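$ ./design --mode recover --in tokens.txt
reading tokens...
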């Protein structure tokens, strides 16, 4: 059999962990697996929340991609400039590369500049450097108001801003500052994690408010006045802050938005079970996709879905190359830990493809679930790197 080339764009959870690594495990050595990634290290993003409050260091939650080379994956470091899905080609730093199968796993591009003043006024805890700056900045605020701001919808890891607020509240309380520092959340959402349904949303809001954290829904930020530490919202309201931690607006990467792959929203529409795009042998997985549920809401952008989608695509491509007819299907199941601080975590799980609405259950926070999240972090980094 003539060797085939499978090219994976992006070294996040979907690209590096399952698509590239799983394909290398499934395919004989005559087939080539190529990973395109601009960064030399993979950061396990769920652990940025712990780093943000000083419970992790960078080296504990990041791994070099060089290990993939030892396992037989060709790693090309560079920026994807253009994607040509008609012939499964990409342009990387001006160099054209072609594959037999193409998997787009470029994730979401963070765009704090979409809200004037946001990037210079606050701390973006969705990046390694931003989480490190917030870790240090929180120590300088010993009284006043800490605001966790969700910049726009959609955003990846829907529980993360709520975990951030809970962890920050616990951090200040443990340092004896509970009566001097107040934590608030502002979001354009009607409630926490609305895709999970009104019951789960109400439960999560109750958990947040039980800790004295203020929750302000339907507040879409339009500008940040950094000089006066004020947030301006579309509904006419304003809010002050002493420390601003934010989730930046998200958008599809430029190479995706300018390609024929992009849908009306800029994200890539795919078959929700196979993750195929409208172009033969071209797939998209993870945060870069736009999958609409029967409820009319989009499938959340989350690592658990990226992981599951990538595994399905890898197995189906391997089956196609081997000439087998069976195909697997992504079923929309997902779960996530919700870190609460104080050594406790909750856990949500269920079927997001259920009709007419997702069927999700939220388990009460416990120490056992917190240790489960810690164990998962260690296992995940060990297994894939």
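writing sequence...
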């Amino acid at each position: 059999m003539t060797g085939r080339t499978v090219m994976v764009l992006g070294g996040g959870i979907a690209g590096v962990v399952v698509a590239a690594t799983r394909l290398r495990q499934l395919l004989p050595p005559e087939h080539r697996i190529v990973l395109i990634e601009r960064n030399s290290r993979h950061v396990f993003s769920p652990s940025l929340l712990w780093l943000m409050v000083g419970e992790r260091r960078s080296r504990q939650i990041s791994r070099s991609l060089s290990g993939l080379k030892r396992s037989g994956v060709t790693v090309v470091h560079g920026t994807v400039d253009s994607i040509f899905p008609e012939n499964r080609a990409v342009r990387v730093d001006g160099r054209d590369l072609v594959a037999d199968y193409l998997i787009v796993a470029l994730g979401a591009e963070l765009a704090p500049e979409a809200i004037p003043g946001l990037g210079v006024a606050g701390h973006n805890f969705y990046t390694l450097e931003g989480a490190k700056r917030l870790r240090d900045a929180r120590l300088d605020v010993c009284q006043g108001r800490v605001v966790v701001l969700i910049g726009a919808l959609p955003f990846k890891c829907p529980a993360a801003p709520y975990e951030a607020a809970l962890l920050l509240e616990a951090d200040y309380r443990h340092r004896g500052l509970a009566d001097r520092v107040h934590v608030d959340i502002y979001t354009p959402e009607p409630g926490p994690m609305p895709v999970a349904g009104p019951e789960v949303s109400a439960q999560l809001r109750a958990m947040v408010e039980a800790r004295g954290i203020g929750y302000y829904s339907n507040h879409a930020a339009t500008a940040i006045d950094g000089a006066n530490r004020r947030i301006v919202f579309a509904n006419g309201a304003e809010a002050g802050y002493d420390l601003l931690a934010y989730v930046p607006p998200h958008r599809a990467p430029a190479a995706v938005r300018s390609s024929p792959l992009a849908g009306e929203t800029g994200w890539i529409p795919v078959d929700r079970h196979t993750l195929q795009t409208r172009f033969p042998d071209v797939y998209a997985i993870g945060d870069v996709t736009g999958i609409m549920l029967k409820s009319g809401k989009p499938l959340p952008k989350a690592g658990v879905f990226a992981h599951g989608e990538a595994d399905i695509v890898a197995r189906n491509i391997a089956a196609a190359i081997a000439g087998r007819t069976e195909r697997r299907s992504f079923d929309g199941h997902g779960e996530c830990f919700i870190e609460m601080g104080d050594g406790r975590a909750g856990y949500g799980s269920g079927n997001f493809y259920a009709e007419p609405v997702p069927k999700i259950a939220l388990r009460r926070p416990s120490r056992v679930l917190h240790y489960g999240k810690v164990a998962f972090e260690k296992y995940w980094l060990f297994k894939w790197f």
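exit 0
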